[in-house]
Design brief:
With 107 residues, the protein is an all-alpha fold. The protein contains two helices and no strands.
Length: 107
């Protein structure tokens, strides 16, 4: 790491991956994003269904317990989805070339 004054720009260059690897990484990123969006949409639909059940005036204790279990399951799935997506993104971006890094002093 090189120390520079706050007013200087820092530029870091790294070799770019071969085009085939870059295309493969792009495809993996698109597939990851697609899975994430589909999972979030599915989760939203399931939460909406549960919300509609709570709008009913005559919600029984058994129904509330069932919905509580469904919500706990959804939260566990969201947690797993976030963790898996985060790890996959770290894996994909770890080999990606760094862009231009700029540091500027704020006034």
């Amino acid at each position: 790491m090189t120390l520079v004054s706050p007013d200087e720009f820092v530029q870091q260059t790294t070799p770019r991956p071969p085009p085939a690897q870059a295309e493969q990484d792009t495809r993996a990123l698109i597939e990851l994003g697609d899975r994430l969006v589909r999972s979030l949409f599915d989760t939203g639909l399931r939460l909406d269904t549960i919300r509609m059940e709570f709008d009913v005036d005559e919600l029984t204790t058994a129904a509330a317990d069932t919905h509580r279990t469904a919500i706990v399951d959804l939260l566990a799935e969201l947690d797993s989805m976030i963790r898996t997506t985060g790890l996959a993104m770290l894996s994909l971006t770890a080999t990606a070339p760094m862009g231009e890094l700029r540091s500027r002093r704020r006034r």
